[in-house]
Design a protein that fits this description.
Elements (H helix, E strand, L loop, with lengths): L23 H10 L4 H5 L15 E6 L5 E5 L4 E5 L5 E5 L7 E6 L5 E5 L4 E5 L5 E5 L7 E6 L5 E5 L4 E5 L5 E5 L10 E3 L5 E5 L3 E2 L1
Antiparallel strand pairs: 1-2, 2-3, 3-4, 5-6, 6-7, 7-8, 9-10, 10-11, 11-12, 13-14, 14-15
Length: 205
Amino acid sequence: MQNRCQGLRRLVIVLLAKAQTIPTVCAVAAGVALGWPAGAFAQAITEFSISTTVTSNPFSITAGPDGALWFTERFANKIGRIDTMGNITEFAIPSIESLPIGITAGPDGALWFAESGFNRVGRIDISGNITEFGLPHVGSSPSFITLGPDNALWFTEFAGNRIGRITTAGVITEFAIPTANSQPRGITAGPDNALWFTRPSYGLQ
């Protein structure tokens, strides 16, 4: 049982995945390990297949202003949208091999995402129209992105060792991280009106 359920303990709600079946017994066991009532957890996981793209690799997901969920498809080079009924729509990113990772809702009613492979930050409105903004430094590898308390979008530059800021008008500012090669990843707004981010090699900043 332990081997069959290995890795499921980190699951809370799986919204997007390749088509597969999770044995009910494993779902229940994982839920019990998390302290959830077995009966409630058995009904908590629903999976939706992205049938139009076999190698999609859905990566990050966020709630959109339209009541749907929007997600990045890292290998498919697309932004996906799924409504709460499970209907999926995909939108191709103009730049090839952009490798989108992080995505977040912006204050302008659009979704903003980081293109780690093509060194850009993208914007997609709820109609699927995409605009891309190039970063000042080549090879910065923008990774994750979040809405800041100033209504700008803040993002990590994994290879560039910087934190970036982009306004809804597309104006970009970058801030160097004092520690060299810190490889910043996740980022979020804190209750102190600052941005907090993780550095896998050095911890929280």
